[in-house]
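Aim 2, interim progress. The first record below pairs a target sequence with its C-alpha cells.
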Amino acid sequence: MPRLPTAFAALALAFAADSAAAEEGNRNAWSGDRTARLEALALLQTLNADLLSHDSATLTLDRWCAAHRLADPPRIVAERVKGADKPATDEQRRLLGVGPDEPVAYRRVRLACGGHVLSEADNWYVPARLTPDMNHTLQTSDTAFGRVVQPLRFQRRTLSADLLWSPLPQGWEMGAPPPAEPALAVPHAVLQHRAVLVLPDGTPFSTLVETYTGAVLDFPEPARR
C-alpha cells in the first residue's frame, strides 16, 4: 500500500510540470495576425542590425538576452558540440590567408541564454595567431569564442547576412494576406551571418558561420494598448 501514494504523488508532480511547461509555451506563443508578424519582423531586423554594428556576436546576444529577460543571470553560455569536425575548405583557407598545410582548428558551439539556444556557430580559426592560453581555453572549456579572444581587440568583417525566414509573405506591403495561422510558426533557423574576424593590423584569424534560431523570439508577444 505505501507505494500507491508515492506513485500517485510522482504522477501528480509530473502532470504539474507538464502543465507549467504548456502554460509557459502558451505564454510565449505569438499570435499569427498581421500586427504580431510586423512586430516579429521588426525585432529580427533590429537584432540583425545590432549584430552588424558590433564586432562580438556573443556580447550582442548578452544584451539581447538581458533586454528580453530570457534568463537570470542574462549571460550567454557556449555549449560545445564535441566530436564535430569540418575541415577548412580552400575558400576558408583563402579567407584566413593560410596555406594548405597550416593547421586550422574547428569548433562548433551552441550559444544559449538559460534554456534558449539563440545561435549555432561553426568557427574555423588559426591557432598560431592566438595566444597559448587562448588555445588552451578553446580546447578545454565551453567559453564562447568571442569572450576568449576579446583581448585581441579584433574587428568583424561581415561577408553576408541573410534573413532565412520572414514572418510576412512576399508582397505583404501590397496587400498579400498573411498565412491563416492562429499562432506564429517560427522555424528553427531565422538568420545567418558569415564573417571573418581580423586582428587590429588586418590579419584574419577566424572565419565563422552563425545561424540564429527562432529562440531569439522566446519571450511574450508585446502587449497592445
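The second target in this work package is listed in the same format:
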Amino acid sequence: MAQTQSPSRPIASVNPATGQTLKTFAPLDDAEIEQKLALASRAFACHRHTPLAERARRLQAAADVLTTGRERYARLMSAEMGKTLASALAEVDKCALVCRFYAEHGAGFLADVPVVTDATRSFVRYQPLGPVLAVMPWNFPFWQVFRFAAPALMAGNVGLLKHASNVPQCALAIEAIFLEAGFAPGCFQTLLVGAERTADLIADVRVVAVTLTGSEPAGRSVASQAGNHLKKCVLELGGSDPFVVLESADIQKAAQTAVTARLINNGQSCIAAKRFIVAEAVADTFEKLLVERFAALKVGDPLDPATDVGPLATPTILKTLDTQVHDSVSRGARVLIGGKALPGPGNFYAPTILADIPPDSPAYGEELFGPVAALFRVPGLDAAIRLANDTAFGLGASAWSTDPAEIDRLAEEIEAGSVFINGMVKSDPRLPFGGTKLSGYGRELSREGMLEFVNIKTVWEL
C-alpha cells in the first residue's frame, strides 16, 4: 500500500433532516489499511476454495440477518441519509432478495459450460479473481453495496468497501451483517477512508478489480486509475432518464407512476425518471395530473410514516440543485410548482416541476439530483425518441404506449441500458443492470453481473 498521510478531518454521520451530527469516526491510518488489505488477501486464499453450497448457505444467512434487523437497518438509513422509512424498509428487503437470488442461482451461473470442438473435452470455467474494491454512493447505502457483494462473494471473491463518507454507520453495519452470517473475517471489509485514498487502494497489487457507482467525474477518475494499473472496472454513473408518454398511453396510470418514478429516494436516484417527454395531444392532461399529485405530497421527517419526500442528503446537494433550478429559470424555464429550498433546519427542497425548458439550461442537459421534474412537449413518436436520446447519458428509460409498432420502436431506438415499457425503471436481480454513453459500462446483477469479476477460463483437452 502506498504511503499517504491520513486526513485529520473525521468521517461524520450527519442527520440531513436536522443537521445534527450523529457520530464521528477517525479515518483509517496507513497501518490499519495495510492490515485490512493483508487480511483480504489471506481471506481470499481460503474463500475461493469454499464449496459453492457453503457460500450459498452464508448468503441465505445474510438475508436472514437483514430480515430480522430490517427495522433497525431502515432507521439507520433514514437517520444517516434521509430516505423515508418506507423506502428504507423496502431497500432492506431488496438486499435480502439479492442475497437469496445468488444463493439459489449462483452455482448454476458458475457451472462449467461444455463446448463442442475438435478436442476430446473442452469447456469454459469461471473462477474468482480476488479482492475487489467497491466505491459506493450514499443514495442507496445498503442496496448499492449488496448488489455488488452478493454475486462477488458467491463467485468466490472478497470485497473491500470504500463507502461514501456521509454513511459510515451503514458501511460498518454491512460488514457486521456478513460476519454474523458466517463469512470469515476479511471476506468483506469496510474501509473508513476519504476519497483521496481511492487511488492508492486501486494501485495496490492485492486489489484485482474495482466497481464504482457514482458521478461521471468519479467514474472518469476511477477508470483512469484502474486503466493505468490494467485492472478491470465496472462503472454505473449518472443518468438523465427519459419518461416518454405517447398519445395511446394510459395517461392516469402514467401520471401516477411518474410521481413515484421521479421522487423515489427523494429524487436522488440515478435511474429516477427526470425528463418527462409527453406527446402534445395528451400534454395538458398529463401536466395537470402531475401538478396535482406534486401539490399533494408531504415533505418532512423521513421517519414519519406520512412523509412522501424527505431531505436531500447533504447541504451541498441542496445548493447544487437550487442553483440548477434558478439558472434554468433565468434562461426561460417556467416553474409550474415548487422551485425553491424550504425554510428551517434540514436539507429540504420543494417538489418542483419545470416546463418550457430551453436547450441551454441545466434542466435540459444535466442530471437533477433531487425532487425536480423537467416537462417537455413533443409532436409525436419521432420527436420523442430524438429528445429522449438528446443527452450524454444512457442509463434507463421508461416509455408509455399501447401501440405495438410504437413499443417496438421505443425499445429498439432509445439509447439506454434498459427500457421499461408501461412501467418505471428499476433494478431487478434477474436482469442485467447498467448503462451506455456517459452512464458507464459493464453490468451488475443477473448472470452477466456475476461474470464481470471472474476469470473466464478456456479448458481444452485432447
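Residues 1-7 have pLDDT under 50 and may be disordered. This observation will shape the mutagenesis plan for the next reporting period.
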